[in-house]
Amino acid sequence: MENAHQKKVIFGKQKNLPCIAPLLTTVEETPKIISAQVRGHVPKWLNGYLLRIGPGKFEFGKDKYNHWFDGMALLHQFKIEKGTVMYRSKFLQSDTYKANSVHDRIVVSEFGTLALPDPCKNIFERFMSKFELPAMTDNTNVNYVQYKGDYYLSTETNFMNKVDIETLEKKEKVDWSKFIAVNGATAHPHYDPDGTAYNMGNSFGSHGSCYHVIRVPPEKADLEETIHGAQVICSIASAERMKPSYYHSFGMTRNYIIFIEQPVKMNLWKIITSKIRGKAFSDGISWEPQYNTRFHVVDKHTGQLLPGMYYSKPFVTFHQINAFEDQGCVVIDLCCQDDGRNLEVYQLQNLRKTGKGLDQIWCSYENLHPKDLEEEGGVEFPQINYGQFSGKKYRFFYGCGFRHLVGDSLIKVDVVNKTLTVWREESFYPSEPIFVPVPGTNEEDGGVILSVVITPNQNERNFLLVLDAKNFEELGRAEVPVQMPYGFHGTFVTI
């Protein structure tokens, strides 16, 4: 794989993009709670924690991470209570973070960064260390997930970190492979109304590679339990034994799991030998559009894979919007692109470019909607009224418009009337929108949208934005005098 700076990765229509480097640099944590300054108003019925996570530290000593996905996990908490907002943040005290801190260098490899041998070792020891199996990172910087009432920080490895959402302190590290035979699981599980969780994970070995549908029961038999009782209910063989597909999420209806096997391939031989070859894990992932995209449908009650093969033209997807059953058909809505090379775009050297340099690596979008959505750069980080409409026919979803390499607007899409509403403020970049319903309402868009909005401008403040989900008008914002990097995902927990 060529380095992203050696070629124009993906061309797009946007030109003269503003520099966003300050949104992708190391920041200090804010462990002590501070008060936010509220402008407008925050509804009095809105009481809870908005929890966000993403990378917040991109170097140790002289060692620097290469990819946005590699940065150390920084946890953000906005406590909303009776119209007031408090903020704090803490770095996740993962084993990876602590080891890197003690040695003042990167000692555990990440997705796009290979940890180099200890410089204190002699030449022979450094050479032999290339043949040691690399330690798997527990830098769980992608999402908050819930199992049996507890919250965990998750990425795509076999590790999760259980966290106290009030203090943001790590409580316990949990290894999926101690419970079921998987090498990792996604950071985007789905939930039944009773709390039963479903996820997907991989296994790699002499048998080849398989994708597994995982079910975790909703309740604990013992207070000390974590994901005890997790089981694999269906295994799907990879189309290519040594080149399974990369995936970030999956779809779920009331009765079915929908897994998309896309032509973003993981070359297991390259990944296994990455340390010997002096390459990062990401070197083993490639876009191979000569393959079509395959859809696998699993009955989640019986674990049976439905017969028949479902194909489409090649595309790449990271996030599903929703899936449901309608008139004997399974419908899945998702954010997708025709070109799957966008993982290369998110090298930090690309994200921190300025001027015309940004024009060379802008990620092109697929036309997901009539022209007005195309003008917003497409949509990502989709969210719905999950509690009431996940797995059901729905009308509204929310997301970020991407006229830049990170979200630069918030969008509400009416999938019935094919209309959209946009919130944007120049030089500000909103996070994934989180929908919170008004207590007791049955209206699909009866509630608010929460988004953390940040700016690279040092003379402006970052803020928590509160929008009326119906008309997308601003109700209020809570400003904090703290630098924040652009993050990934989050959730809202009512208190």
From TrEMBL:
Its EC number is 1.13.11.71. Its cofactor is Fe(2+). Keywords: Dioxygenase, Iron, Lipid metabolism, Metal-binding, Mitochondrion, Oxidoreductase. InterPro entries: Carotenoid_Oase. This is Carotenoid-cleaving dioxygenase, mitochondrial. It is an enzyme of class 1 (oxidoreductase). Broad specificity mitochondrial dioxygenase that mediates the asymmetric oxidative cleavage of carotenoids. Cleaves carotenes (pure hydrocarbon carotenoids) such as all-trans-beta-carotene and lycopene as well as xanthophylls (oxygenated carotenoids) such as zeaxanthin, lutein and beta-cryptoxanthin at both the 9,10 and the 9',10' carbon-carbon double bond. Through its function in carotenoids metabolism regulates oxidative stress and the production of important signaling molecules. It comes from Sus scrofa. Binds 1 Fe(2+) ion per subunit. It catalyses: all-trans-10'-apo-beta-carotenal + O2 = beta-ionone + 4,9-dimethyldodeca-2,4,6,8,10-pentaenedial; all-trans-zeaxanthin + O2 = (3R)-3-hydroxy-10'-apo-beta-carotenal + (3R)-hydroxy-beta-ionone; all-trans-beta-carotene + O2 = beta-ionone + all-trans-10'-apo-beta-carotenal; beta-cryptoxanthin + O2 = all-trans-10'-apo-beta-carotenal + (3R)-hydroxy-beta-ionone. One of its GO terms (cellular component) is mitochondrion. Pfam families: RPE65.
